[in-house]
Design a protein that fits this description.
Layout (H helix, E strand, L loop, with lengths): L1 E5 L9 H9 L14 H14 L4 H8 L8 H11 L1 E9 H10 L4 E9 L5 E5 L5 H11 L3 E6 L5 H6 L2 E5 L3 H6 L5 E2 L2 H13 L1
Parallel strand pairs: 1-2, 1-5, 2-3, 5-6, 6-7
Antiparallel strand pairs: 3-4
Helix pairs in contact: 3-5, 4-9
Length: 201
């Protein structure tokens, strides 16, 4: 039996930090896991920038409330969930993901959480477990599931490479060049076709 695991941001939803960067006018916040492989380092840097500019969790949530899933993403997820058990494995946070998940029909998501101080400032991020995407895929495999995985960033590579089948979706030219052996897609219908082939095999 298969479980399909996918990333959220850049795959079925816009990159939240990029959207917030546009609204806040802070261009440094455009940096994502496509640019920085070390997620802890990236988050500590982001938290520092937010504090420096006096921005709270609520400021980010106000932006997220206006974000919709990527065009075609809900239909893609509906089709995928009709074919396979599906889990979104994301390094985002419960405090960010909730409104987006509702707009996508409440797919299952495993993500992380944030610690906020009494003034509403984010003080630290709490990861669900180390290397959460790879760890989750290995845990699923340990209880008898085969996994299919796809994503767009450096932090997706572990789960992609550990799975029975793995794909890159709308990734960067650098990641494509560094990992030429991983099939890459840019359209949902192409990706669904590849997943169907794996499920039929």
């Amino acid at each position: 039996m298969f479980v399909t695991c996918l990333d959220m941001e850049g795959v079925v939803a816009p990159e939240i930090w990029i959207e917030f960067s546009k609204v806040s006018g802070i261009s440094e916040l455009k940096r994502t896991t496509r640019d920085e492989p070390d997620y802890d380092k990236l988050m500590q840097w982001r938290i520092g920038i937010l504090k420096e500019h006096g921005l709270t969790l609520k400021d980010i949530q106000n932006t997220i409330a206006k974000i919709d899933p990527l065009p075609g993403a809900k239909e893609f997820l509906d089709e995928l969930r009709s074919m396979s058990q599906t889990i979104i494995l994301s390094d985002t946070f419960e405090e960010f993901a909730s409104p987006l998940i509702k707009k996508m029909g409440m797919p299952t998501i495993f993500c992380n959480s944030l610690e906020v101080d009494e003034k509403g400032f984010i003080v630290r991020h709490k990861m669900r477990c180390p290397q959460s995407k790879l760890t989750t895929v290995k845990a699923l495999q340990s209880i008898g599931y085969e996994t299919i995985a796809f994503g767009d960033s450096y932090n997706d590579l572990g789960m992609i490479q550990a799975s029975k089948a793995g794909f890159l979706f709308r990734t960067t030219d650098k990641i494509k060049a560094d990992y030429p052996n991983i099939p890459t897609f840019t359209e949902y219908d192409e990706l669904l076709k590849a997943i169907k082939e794996v499920l039929k095999a």
